[in-house]
Amino acid sequence: MTCDAVGKLIPLYFYGELPAGEEDRVEAHLRECAACAREMARMASLAGALGRRQAEVPALLLEECRADLRAAVRGGAPLAAAPAKGPWTLFLEAMGATLAGFSRWRAPVGAVALVAMGFAGARFSGAGRTWWRPADDTAFATVRSVQADGSGGVQIAFDETQRKVISGRTDSPAIQKLLLTAFHQDNPDVRVESMGLLSPGTDTAEVRDALLGALDHDPNAGVRLKALDKLKPLAADPEVRKAMARVLQTDDNAAVRMQIVDLLVTRRDESMVGVMQSVVQREDNSGVRQKLETALKDLNASVGTF
Hints:
mainly alpha; Leucine-rich Repeat Variant; two-stranded antiparallel sheet; 58% helix; 6% strand
C-alpha cells in the first residue's frame, strides 16, 4: 500500500472500522514505514488528549438511541414518543430522506446508523478503537462488520477481549513484565507512563535493551526523550553510549539530539570525537550545534574533521 492510501485509512484503522484483510495490510505498512507510524502515533496522541475531555452525556441518550435504532431496523416508528425529537431521531430522518430515492439502499439503513453510532460512541466515551462496553466494564468489543440479513435483522461480527487489572510494587517481576510489554502498545501515552514507572533500581539487561529499542525505533519523540531520561544512570555503559551516538546521527528531533549530547559529555570519551565532529558539520539547530562545539572544545578537538 502507498503512504497516501494508508494515510487516508489510518482514522478508520484506529477506530477498528476496516475489514480484517485491509487492517492487516495497513499494519504491515506501519511496521515498515516510519513516516506513517509517526502519523499513527500522532493520531493516538490526539485521541488520548481528546479522551481526557469527558463530555456530559444525558442519562437517557443511550436508551433513546437504542430505541430509535431498533425502530429504524424494523422500519417502524420509535418505541416511545419523546417530547422533542432527539439527535438520533433527527439523524435517522435525515438519512431516510437522503436515501428515499434509492430503493436498493433502504434495507441497510439500520446498519449504517449502527456504524455511525459506533463513531459517535467513541467520541462520547473516549474509548479509542474499542467503542462498545457492557455494564460490568470488563469485556470490550471491536465491531468488524455489520450487515442487514434481508429479514429486518442485522448480523454483526466483532472481536471481544477481556480486561484484567493487577496491582503491585513496580519492582515485582509481574509488574515489570507488564511495564515492558507496555513499551510496544499503540498509545504513546501508555509507553511514556510505563517507562516513568520503572523502578529506579531496575538495571537488568532486559530493561536496558527495551529502553535502547525505544530510543532507536519509537516514532514518538516524547517516548524517546523518556527513554533517554531512564538511561541516564547507564550513561557510562559502552552499549548505551554506542546506541546514543548512533541516534545522535539519525534522530530528527532537536530535543532528543540535545539530550544525547548532554549525556555523552558526562564522561570524557575520546571515541565520541569523530561522531560529534561529523554531526556538528550538518547540524541545523543552533542550540545543538553550540553544545557540540563546546563539547569538542572541552575535549581539545577541532570543530571540523580532517
